[in-house]
UniProtKB/TrEMBL annotation:
Hydrolase listed as a keyword: no
PurM-like N-terminal domain span: 28-136
Function: Catalyzes the ATP-dependent phosphorylation of thiamine-monophosphate (TMP) to form thiamine-pyrophosphate (TPP), the active form of vitamin B1.
This protein's encoding gene: thiL
Pathway: Cofactor biosynthesis; thiamine diphosphate biosynthesis; thiamine diphosphate from thiamine phosphate: step 1/1
Residues involved in Mg(2+) 1 binding: 47, 122
Binding, Mg(2+) 3: 30, 75, 209
Name by which UniProt lists this protein: Thiamine-monophosphate kinase
Top enzyme category: transferase
Catalysed reactions, as listed in the record: thiamine phosphate + ATP = thiamine diphosphate + ADP
Binding site for Mg(2+) 4: 30, 45, 75
Entry binding sites for substrate: 54, 260, 315
Annotated binding of Mg(2+) 2, by residue: 47, 75
UniProt source species: Amphritea pacifica
Length: 325
């Protein structure tokens, strides 16, 4: 791509900072050089977004940046890792300076906010596609896995569920109205629950971030841990905005199986619930108990004495609703 080096220098040379001080050499050489802190494990994850698949064509650079980095960092949160640095693979159809400025400015703001540094990447020409590979640290052996849930553990989620699915609906159907800005904000600006993850990590037995829908992602914990779950749908945390817009039944359905909430779902033994509540006493993100782990495999919804088995069908990027084309 002509001007590739200028583009990197102008937009991507100085983004974010690494709070762990592990980055020795950043953007500019053939590779970045990292010195791992003593007694830490490196935790790595990559996320890709394609225009027309993960976001509508014509989405502003700042919205793409927040969706991209937020979703990628959410995976680090799910492992209770502290973000350190990231790389960015950018495929651009052209070099639109307005889009690039908005993208890199927002990326820099978020990178500073979350203490993560852009240390390298790759820039090519083609249909707009963005990949972010995030790297974080956990104390050695302390990464929070999907496999530790036991029967009797309580199941918790952070924040509210279903908003992002609501935001997607407003985009797909070009809906306007009072609740739309909030719901679209929830779709484009996921807040990785990094601080919450560090607070719950001492008590949690398993965790995942909700990207494909609560049922689908909880099911990953259940399979990895070889257990089942009983959920109380009446306890699902649903925002006033979503409930007001689509009502209780549709909100619940989206809370259970709408995608891209980027909230955490985690389990913890019932015995540590008071300690968990104490650890979260001044925290500004809601953490709600929505059910418990059972020995019997599968997921059931339990409400008003009724027990309803459900399939862990989640949101699917290759289904119609997931595609903006
Ligand atoms: P090479 O050809 O040796 O792979 P490049 O010319 O692709 O190197 O990149 C030059 C430098 O710019 C490298 O340090 C690379 O990591 C960095 N870089 C390239 N694209 C990006 C990007 N989109 N964001 C951040 N750094 C980038
Ligand atoms: Mg090289």
């Amino acid at each position: 791509m002509t001007g590739e080096f200028e583009l990197i220098r102008d937009y991507f040379a100085d983004i974010g900072g690494d709070l762990s001080g592990s980055v020795q050499l950043s953007v500019g050489d053939d590779c970045a050089v990292i010195t791992p802190p003593a007694h830490q494990d490196l935790v790595v994850s990559i996320d890709t977004m394609v225009e027309g698949v993960h976001f509508p064509s014509g989405t502003s650079g700042d919205r793409v940046a927040s969706r991209l980095l937020g979703a990628a960092l959410s995976d680090l949160a799910a492992m209770a890792a502290s973000p350190a640095f990231f790389t960015l693979a950018l495929t651009l159809p052209d070099t639109d300076p307005v889009w690039l400025k908005a993208f890199s400015t927002r990326l820099a703001e978020l990178a500073r906010q979350y203490g993560v540094q852009l240390v390298g990447g790759d820039t090519t020409r083609g249909p707009l596609t963005l990949s972010v590979q995030v790297h974080g640290w956990t104390p050695a052996g302390k990464a929070l896995l999907r496999s530790g849930a036991s029967p009797g553990d309580r199941i918790f989620v952070t924040g509210t569920l279903g908003d992002s699915r609501g935001g997607l609906e407003t985009l797909l159907n070009n809906i306007h109205g009072e609740q739309v800005p909030y719901l679209q904000h929830r779709f484009f600006c996921p807040e990785p629950r990094l601080d919450t993850a560090l607070l719950i990590a001492p008590f949690a037995t398993a965790a995942i971030d909700i990207s494909d829908g609560l049922l689908a992602d909880l099911n990953h914990i259940l399979e990895a841990s070889q257990v089942g779950a009983m959920l109380n749908p009446g306890e699902l945390p649903i925002s006033h905005e979503l409930r007001h817009w689509v009502g209780e039944a549709q909100s619940r359905q989206w809370a259970l199986s709408g995608g891209e909430d980027f909230e955490l779902c985690f389990t913890a033994p019932a015995l540590v619930e008071p300690k968990l509540a104490w650890a979260l006493r001044d925290h500004n993100v809601a953490v709600t108990c929505i059910g418990q782990i059972s020995e019997t495999r599968g997921i059931v919804l339990a409400e008003d004495g009724q027990i309803l088995p459900v399939t862990p069908q989640g949101y699917n990027h290759f289904s119609e609703t997931g595609n903006f084309r």
